[in-house]
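Students often ask why we bother encoding 3D structure as a string. The short answer is that it lets us treat folding as translation between two languages. Here is a chain of 181 residues written in the first language.
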Amino acid sequence: MERNFETVMIEQCSPVLAGLKAAGLFRYETSDCKDLAERVRGWNARLGEKGLRVRVLKGCVRSHWYLVYVYRESRLREVLADANVRAFLAQEGYTLSEDGGCEPLLRQMARRLCCEAEFPHEIGVFLGYPLPDVVGFIENQGRNFTCCGCWKAYGDPTAAQRRFEEYRQSTVRCKERFLRG
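And here it is in the second language, the structure alphabet:
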């Protein structure tokens, strides 16, 4: 499969497109910023009616690398409305709004990606990873996990492996459908 915007999005974000996950992230490399903006606009037009959004969270015109975030707004809103997630984000220094909207928190995440020396590992909650796994990753500095697949899990390895397999199967199905047109 050719490595263009669409194929990378399918490979990395199929569980989001299939409705299994709140959000996904992929790195895209291009020197054509105008083309990237047009692709993002085009996919937002096509996917918007399905409740999906595409946005560039971080970009570098020197390296030509961009972090593209694909999310299902209703699912992300549910994740970010969870009291435990909100408490965690507040503890991490996020300013929470009362309306429960995603946009202010996504802007803060984008700023952290661009402006902080350390990678903001709390991004895991924005990707829909279980909060105990995000906290476990931060506290253990990526070590001592119970299993590893789409992310490092720190809880029940059987449940995490079931989820990893569910995501893998959705990726296979999405790739097949994409290749068929």
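Translate back mentally: DSSP finds eight helices and five strands in the chain. Keep this in mind for the problem set.
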